[in-house]
Design goal:
Elements lengths: L1 H21 L12 H26 L6 H7 L6 E4 L10 H9 L7 E3 L10 H19 L4 E6 L2 H11 L6 E7 L15 H5 L6 H6 L12 E7 L18 E5 L14 H15 L2
Parallel strand pairs: 1-2, 1-3, 3-4, 4-5, 5-6
Helix pairs in contact: 1-2, 5-6
């Protein structure tokens, strides 16, 4: 916006500066201007034009410098990859995808995905597959970064990707719905490797993932968690909190969603949208 305003200023000012040199003389009796006067006028005009060009150059450098802000300024949203939890399929995220599209996200910037095991394998392996998906989305869209909207077990795979692989420079925002970030007491699913990894706060996987920080590279990435007091899967409720996150959002009251409803809940999705747009232009 600043660049466009400055460009308009440059065009109108340039016209004002060049008009006098081409204007009809005020008196019909004046046959010509002196050479020295024309030379002086040209010099003044050139100096002022140079100054205005400098102004345009300075204001253009004030345009948003982050990829997310640049995309927002261009009227584009950063691509969003939506990932379900353990045993979930990409279709589980269709409500979220439809909600974003209804609220202005083009379909070409929205992706649902899960790994080959549906988040039941070692979550470090799922993170490696996520790395390939992020690169695919970046290549397809031309975007330098993506938003990761994760749910349940995939919240951990995404954080592993950011911390230990190449996600730090490819992710602009991390959003975790109902994540067992510190394990869960509802852990009767340990025939799956991933469930073993978040079966308690002290598993080797979680100890490594949460140390020394729960929000790796938070100087580059914005973090939001969304949890519900009515969730009986990721329990206790504060297991979904990330220390140091930009926002840890709690939904409570009788109408708060359960673990399975949270990724299609209108209030939760409104919070996600507002967070994304606020940080796209920050």
């Amino acid at each position: 916006m600043l660049f466009r305003s400055s460009s308009s200023l440059f065009r109108s000012s340039s016209s004002a500066l060049t008009t006098p040199s081409g204007a009809t003389p005020a008196s019909a009796g004046v046959r010509r201007c002196s050479w020295s006067r024309r030379t002086l006028s040209a010099a003044i005009a050139a100096a002022l034009t140079t100054g205005l060009l400098g102004l345009v150059s300075q204001t253009s450098s004030a345009t948003p410098h982050s990829p997310a802000a640049a995309a927002a300024a261009a009227g584009e949203h950063v691509p969003v990859i939506m990932i379900p939890g353990m045993t979930g399929t990409p279709s589980y995220m269709n409500s979220m995808k439809s909600n974003l599209q209804t609220n202005g996200w083009p379909a070409s910037r929205l992706f649902t995905w899960t790994d080959t095991s549906r988040m039941t394998q070692d979550l470090a392996k799922a993170a490696q597959e996520l790395s390939a998906k992020v690169d695919e989305v970046r290549s397809r869209t031309g975007a330098s970064k993506v938003v990761l909207a994760t749910w349940s077990a995939s919240t951990l795979a995404a954080r592993y990707y950011i911390k230990n692989l190449d996600g730090a420079d490819k992710v602009s925002q991390y959003i975790g719905f109902a994540g067992p970030q510190h394990g869960t007491t509802n852990n009767g699913c340990q025939w799956y490797v991933s469930c073993q990894q978040f079966a308690s706060p002290n598993t080797p996987f979680l100890r490594a993932l949460n140390s020394p920080t729960e929000v790796p590279f938070n100087d580059k990435i914005d973090y939001l968690t969304i949890r519900s007091a009515n969730d009986i899967n990721a329990v206790p409720v504060d297991t979904a909190v990330l220390a140091g996150a930009d926002e840890n959002y709690l939904m409570s009251g009788p109408m708060a969603p359960n673990h399975f409803q949270i990724v299609s809940n209108s209030t939760a999705l409104a919070k996600m949208r507002s967070f994304i747009t606020a940080h796209e232009i920050a």
